[in-house]
């Protein structure tokens, strides 16, 4: 019942009505018993005009005895005298009483029944009084709670990990919590009100704020979405999830400021970006493998057909072929097998590179001897071209030794592909130049030919897997060689560049870092 009372706005009026009704029922006519010792003017003010009982001067100690002696008269007149006793210096001057002669005429005349009824009425009055007291106590508790809420709210705002700020309608900061200051790199040396909202919104999102966010907040009261901020010190982009809402004036409800609760989602955006990149890489690898299988099937099918044809001729007509033709078919088979082997090696290598299974492993070695040996190996594969190797090293020893640290496997892939391409795309009996020079903590390799050259339109995609120049014609190739070269150069933390003109030739320049060691 207490909860029902406290939840009603009519609690106080109802309570007073009940008290007045009960008082009216119990005290149809109030009666006061006075002592003759009071003067006539005082007694006249206090006496009941209808009924009056005058008691002789008695003391508090003899009150109970005197009441018993007059009990018969009291019962007959249906009067009841209850405290408070009107006394001065322990002398009784009167008793306050209530007359119920009219109100309780319907009750049986037995005093016990009337006494029980009085007890019920008194209990009800006490219950209502306690209920009222509880209601007042509840209101007091609520007022204390409300009074403490601003402090609790301030503590929440202060310790929140989110950006919480307030700007006026001129877009100037008037409040910013500690997390907000850290997020945008706000310096405590500057005045907060000098900072404008435009200063910490990323330039690319300022139009979004002015054209969409602000009009929406002013029109419907709030806006929620993503917006990029700018770090005031570093200029770094901060990706955030933001909620803007109006702060109205309490009486007029006119907007006075705009509050914002902003959460940094830069790590989430970075994770999303990484996932997208990973998915893109997986997709690229899948497409590459699919393309790889297509190219491999085509490139392997042609050599196998050549091998099959030469083998069939030798089997069926070998006894009728002269030695020269027989050797020509055998040489064709051998070259085709080498071509298939090279293709398979390239496929395996590009697959390892795409799967990031290739590693850089440097070791000390004589770079001059390495280049000369590689030149001799490639020279043996062709009799129609000549490779001219030269070196110019500042720290070259007298015995032609030059020890540096480099990855021999990666460098072999790089130089082999570039030298074989120079031979493949050059006219017969043309010179291929191969030079080695020294830069500042790096080695510089240059391979030049006077071949067909590379069109400008193809140079941008030159290191893309399976891409070939538009002018290669019927020259065999897979389009994987330069892609492998680029990946090996990257693993060696080097650079590669190309200078080419159609019909005049091409020069590739490769630079790789190296630690020089003299012996």
From TrEMBL:
InterPro entries: HATPase_C_sf, HATPase_dom, His_kinase_dom, HisK_dim/P_dom, HisK_dim/P_sf, PAS, PAS-like_dom_sf, PAS_fold_3. CDD domains: HATPase, HisKA, PAS. Pfam families: HATPase_c, HisKA, PAS_3. Keywords: ATP-binding, Kinase, Membrane, Nucleotide-binding, Phosphoprotein, Transferase, Transmembrane, Transmembrane helix, Two-component regulatory system. The chain crosses the membrane at residues 116-136. Residues 295-516 form the Histidine kinase domain. It comes from the Bacteria. Coiled coil: none annotated. Residues 149-221 form the PAS domain. This is histidine kinase.
């Amino acid at each position: 019942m207490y909860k029902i009372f406290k939840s009603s706005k009519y609690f106080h009026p109802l309570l007073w009505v009940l008290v007045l009704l009960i008082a009216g029922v119990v005290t149809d006519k109030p009666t006061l018993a006075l002592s003759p010792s009071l003067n006539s003017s005082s007694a006249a003010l206090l006496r009941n005009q209808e009924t009056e009982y005058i008691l002789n001067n008695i003391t508090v100690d003899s009150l109970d005895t005197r009441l018993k002696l007059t009990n018969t008269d009291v019962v007959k007149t249906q009067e009841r005298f209850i405290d408070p006793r009107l006394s001065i210096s322990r002398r009784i001057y009167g008793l306050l009483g209530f007359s119920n002669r009219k109100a309780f005429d319907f009750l049986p005349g037995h005093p016990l029944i009337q006494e029980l009824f009085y007890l019920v009425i008194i209990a009800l009055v006490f219950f209502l009084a306690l209920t009222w007291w509880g209601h007042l106590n509840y209101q007091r508790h609520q007022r204390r709670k409300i009074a403490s809420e601003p402090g609790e709210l301030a503590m929440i705002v202060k310790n929140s990990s989110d950006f919480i700020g307030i700007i006026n309608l001129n877009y100037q900061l008037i409040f910013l919590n500690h997390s907000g200051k850290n997020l945008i790199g706000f310096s405590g040396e500057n005045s907060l009100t000098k900072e404008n909202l435009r200063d910490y919104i990323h330039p690319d999102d300022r139009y979004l704020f002015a054209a969409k966010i602000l009009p929406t907040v002013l029109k419907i009261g709030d806006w929620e979405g993503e917006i990029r901020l700018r770090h005031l010190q570093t200029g770094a982009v901060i990706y955030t999830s933001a909620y803007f809402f109006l702060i109205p004036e309490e009486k007029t409800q006119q907007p006075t400021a705009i509050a914002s609760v902003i959460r940094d989602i830069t790590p989430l955006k970075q994770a999303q970006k990484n996932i997208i990149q990973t998915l893109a890489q997986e997709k690229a690898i899948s497409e590459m493998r699919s393309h790889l299988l297509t190219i491999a099937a085509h490139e392997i099918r042609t050599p196998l057909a050549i091998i099959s044809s030469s083998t069939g001729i030798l089997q069926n007509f070998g006894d009728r072929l002269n030695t020269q033709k027989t050797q020509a078919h055998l040489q064709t088979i051998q070259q085709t097998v080498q071509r298939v082997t090279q293709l398979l090696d390239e496929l395996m290598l590009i697959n390892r590179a795409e799967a990031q299974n290739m590693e850089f492993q440097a070791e000390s070695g004589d770079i001059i001897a390495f280049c000369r040996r590689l030149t001799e190996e490639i020279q043996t594969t062709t009799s129609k071209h000549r490779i001219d190797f030269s070196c110019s090293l500042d720290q070259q020893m007298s015995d032609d030794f030059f020890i540096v640290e480099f990855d021999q496997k990666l460098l072999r892939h790089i130089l082999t592909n570039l030298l074989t391409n120079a031979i493949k795309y050059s006219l017969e009996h043309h010179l291929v130049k191969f030079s080695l020079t020294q830069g500042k903590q790096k080695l510089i390799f240059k391979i030049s030919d006077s071949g067909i050259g590379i069109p400008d339109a193809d140079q941008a995609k030159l290191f893309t897997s399976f891409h070939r120049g538009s002018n290669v014609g019927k020259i065999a190739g897979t389009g994987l060689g330069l892609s492998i070269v680029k990946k090996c150069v990257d693993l060696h933390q080097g650079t590669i560049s190309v200078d080419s003109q159609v019909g005049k030739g091409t020069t590739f320049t490769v630079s790789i870092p190296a630690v020089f060691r003299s012996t």
